Q: What sequence folds into this?
């Protein structure tokens, strides 16, 4: 059978680069890794069929350097680029340039990315698709006076969000007008520094939400399937730490409604790839509100893979190659439970990242245990990139069994030489509150105090 | 990162000749940093290999024979808490937090260390004058590496 692509360039690093590389191997597609000078000893460089150094350590000069990456694709003869997550994965301009250079961008169309990238536009589209939204503005708010007026109408507390934000960054909770006056200019300048865009919008602050997202897969032929939810409520500083599926708090009826809303949004923008629609869920009232859509593969995608048996990365590549979805709605049968713990090189008390050399490493194993990592014995964890160095995923018949399995796997997981959160994860997993499943996104604030 | 070599020396009465010999050795072996401490005397040298200038800490040994009195001021180092990338300003376009010769107050931000996408502000633990910035913008610094030399008596 003819391969789907001649060669795929993987425009990423770390565990996701390996994840993509393995999917390519299974699809008999040769791979090209790109790497920064600092990453020359990384596994994604060693395991790829070809590897091209594209610049110095800072991401802006390497993994975010569009001309270098396009050149690397051209000189290596790659006819497709997989962007992974982070870096250029949600950069509409990059997706557009790939198209112009005759390279397939393995992801949605530039228009899809553009539509969901600007958060107020995404809110407008969700509103048009009749997806429930938290009260808030549908446009950006340019001045503090207008922000005060809007906030008064919405009612405090409110959340001030960067319109170009993402990844849990650029979020400010404001309790009263005085706080808003102080926070607004600060938030604007921080958004400018972080995202190159100072635009802000307002949303009603949801007091005790769960963060639950729907995984979707859509092809070019109008086939759209929801693959259930992932509950990502355990977060620190608005960044996910533990994800699981199914969610312990939502019922079938709510799951159906959320899935239908997610697909409705996809239909509105004619979405064509893997995607994730994030919702805030008030589990007491079983109401849900659209938060944002991520137009890429998610860090936590293995949770869905474990419970559905579907290889999402392979599916994403197939969709990009023009194949129809390999499954239908009725093929999605979820009869088990999966949990993922993110393993970070950070001190678990202050969450301060700590790079350094791994002096000893032991990875857990066994039935239903999956480790996605790029580190190895004596690997030097670099200060330039994300602190997530691995993901531990377990699958079992029930949530209780999955928790037991995760405890066992965390016990076996040993990383020496750098600070890490393995013990902290074990404490969370074994806490009464987590085991009962009754908590909201403030879980860690209360847990750590 | 520069590879550092360490050599231990013991001498009780350092004088010019010994110091000259020491400087030669540091140069030949490309040694980044040299520390010597005895009783209340301490000598610390950082060479170009550590991308810093040499300097003397409190009760330092001067390099010339005629200035054997202790220096008038006691310099203090501001060190990095973490491994990361040193930035003098919050963004490439922004003005640096501090410049050499500038007075700072306790709690003022002196620089940012970027570590794994987290921006960690290094603040002044005491007030004083920034005598010297010991590292370059964008340079990788190690935990406990000196970033600034400050004169707290100013």
A:
């Amino acid at each position: 059978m003819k391969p789907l692509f001649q060669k795929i360039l993987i425009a990423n690093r770390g565990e996701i680069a390996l994840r993509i590389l393995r999917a390519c191997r299974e699809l008999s597609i040769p791979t090209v890794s790109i790497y920064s000078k600092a990453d020359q000893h990384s596994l994604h460089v060693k395991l790829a069929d070809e590897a091209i150094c594209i610049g110095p350590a800072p991401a802006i000069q390497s993994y975010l350097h569009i001309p270098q990456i396009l050149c690397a694709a051209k000189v290596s003869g790659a006819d497709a680029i997989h962007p992974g997550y982070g870096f250029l994965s949600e950069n509409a301009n990059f997706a557009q340039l790939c198209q112009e250079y005759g390279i397939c961008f393995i992801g949605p169309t530039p228009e899809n990315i553009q539509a969901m990238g600007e958060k107020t536009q995404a809110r407008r589209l969700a509103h048009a698709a009749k997806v429930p939204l938290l009260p808030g503005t549908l446009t950006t708010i340019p001045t503090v006076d207008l922000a005060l007026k809007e906030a008064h109408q919405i009612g405090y507390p409110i959340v001030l969000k960067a319109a170009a934000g993402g990844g849990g960054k650029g979020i400010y909770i404001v309790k009263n007008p005085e706080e808003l006056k102080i926070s607004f200019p600060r938030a604007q300048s921080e958004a400018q520094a972080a995202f190159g865009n100072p635009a802000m919008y307002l949303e009603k602050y949801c007091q005790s939400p769960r963060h639950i997202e729907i995984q979707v897969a859509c092809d070019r032929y109008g086939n759209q399937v929801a693959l259930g939810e992932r509950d990502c409520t355990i977060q620190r500083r608005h960044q996910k730490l533990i994800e699981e599926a199914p969610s312990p708090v939502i019922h079938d009826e709510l799951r159906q409604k959320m899935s239908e809303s997610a697909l409705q949004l996809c239909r509105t923008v004619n979405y064509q790839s893997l995607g994730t629609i994030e919702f805030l869920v008030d589990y007491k009232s079983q109401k849900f509100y659209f938060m944002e859509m991520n137009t890429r593969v998610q860090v936590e995608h293995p949770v869905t893979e474990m419970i559905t048996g579907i290889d999402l990365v392979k599916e994403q590549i197939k969709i990009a190659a023009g194949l129809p979805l390999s499954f239908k709605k009725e093929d999605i049968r979820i009869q088990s439970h999966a949990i993922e713990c993110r393993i970070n090189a950070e001190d678990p008390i202050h969450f301060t990242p700590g790079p350094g050399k791994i002096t000893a490493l032991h990875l857990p194993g066994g039935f239903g245990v999956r480790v996605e990592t790029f580190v190895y014995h004596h690997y030097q964890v670099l200060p330039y990139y994300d602190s997530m160095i691995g993901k531990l995923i377990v699958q079992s018949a029930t949530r209780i069994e999955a928790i037991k399995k995760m405890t066992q796997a965390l016990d076996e997981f040993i990383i020496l030489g750098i600070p890490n959160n393995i013990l902290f994860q074990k404490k969370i997993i074994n806490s009464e509150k987590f085991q009962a499943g009754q908590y909201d996104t403030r879980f860690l604030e209360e847990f750590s105090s | 990162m520069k590879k550092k070599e360490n050599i231990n020396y013991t001498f009780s009465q350092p004088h010019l000749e010994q110091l000259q010999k020491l400087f030669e050795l540091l140069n030949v072996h490309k040694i980044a940093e040299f520390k010597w401490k005895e009783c209340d005397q301490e000598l610390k040298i950082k060479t170009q290999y550590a991308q810093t200038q040499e300097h003397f800490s409190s009760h330092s040994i001067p390099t010339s024979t005629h200035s054997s009195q202790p220096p008038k001021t006691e310099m203090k180092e501001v060190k990095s808490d973490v491994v990361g990338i040193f930035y003098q300003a919050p963004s490439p376009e922004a003005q640096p937090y501090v410049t050499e010769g500038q007075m700072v107050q306790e709690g003022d931000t002196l620089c940012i260390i970027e570590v794994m996408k987290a921006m960690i502000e290094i603040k002044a633990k005491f007030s004083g004058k920034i005598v010297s910035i010991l590292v370059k913008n964008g340079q990788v610094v190690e935990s406990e590496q000196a970033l600034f030399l400050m004169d707290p008596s100013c």
User: Anything to note?
Assistant: Chain A has a mean pLDDT of 95. The longest helix of chain A spans residues 177-195. Chain A has three domains: 8-106, 135-204, 210-448. Chain A touches chain B at residues 58, 193, 345-346, 351-356, 383-387 (CB under 8 Å).
